[in-house]
Amino acid sequence: MSLKFISFYGAVVILTSLFFQFLPEPHMLSWEELLLSKFLNQSPSLLCLGYLWFHQKRIKRVYIFSLLIAFLFLNVFSEVYYYLVSPEYLAPVNILNNIAIYVVLLMLFIAQRTQIKAHVFNTRNTTYAILTTVLFLIGFGISVPQAYEKYLAESALFFYIILAAMLITSLTVCMSFFVDKTRSRNWYKLVAGTILIALVDIYVYLSIFVFDASPFFIYTIGKLIFSIGILLIVDRSIGKCLYNKPALGISNGLIKSV
């Protein structure tokens, strides 16, 4: 990604975070204002989608490009189904959408992993992955007893959906360590990006199940952290699915077929 786009992305994220800092309660907003807030909330994903669409003629690996589009689209879709699903089903649908996001992200990591296994499967990298995954499992695990007590009796299926979401998120964090050469620039981007978006999920679960409070910071500090994570993952993945420059003398159809 160009420095200009990253600077623009950062400015948009900061401004929208400030917007949500002083946003009234949803019931106090008109339809137009609520729609604007939904649009601004997903502006990081929409910006990345726009960037990919603008550079679609540079595609060299369609599969990775498609997974990246799906990952961003599912993030945006989280604002859409609120108007399609009954309120009593919003929580499970939200968790299922979150599972789908991490499944696509996991597939994206598998598609990008290096072919030189010695560079990623070594003692040091495995230690990093295991320790970080254990910490995430502990972070998610703090919420499990409360979720069990709250939901198992009335809806065992929903409890197992929550448990599946925690496990797939932790597995995705673990997989991010085994995509690139240990401690390379791309390795840091992918690992840091995945950890940042997963930390936001831990915060949400802790707020709901442990502290029994609304995750107030999800649209401010959480949004900032999540947006940085999105940018790092997209910036790393673009190098795997787009040419650096349009190839001279090669037709667009040939480029897309590579």
Account of the protein in words:
The chain is mainly alpha-helical and 258 residues long. Helix content is 71%, strand content 0%. The chain is built from eleven helices and no strands. Helix 1 (3-21) packs antiparallel against helix 10, helix 3 (43-54) packs antiparallel against helix 4 (62-77) and helix 3 runs parallel beside helix 10. The radius of gyration is 19 Å and the shape is globular. The two termini are 21 Å apart. 26% of the residues are buried. The chain crosses the membrane at residues 5-23, 35-54, 61-83, 95-114, 126-145, 157-178, 190-210, 216-234. Keywords: Membrane, Transmembrane, Transmembrane helix.
Count of β-strands: 0
Distance between the termini: 21 Å
Taken as a percent bin, the fraction of beta residues is under 5%
Radius of gyration, whole Å = 19 Å
Based on CA inertia axes, which overall geometry fits? globular
Please write the string of helix (H) and strand (E) elements. HHHHHHHHHHH
Question: Keywords for this structure?
Answer:
258 residues, single chain, 11 helices
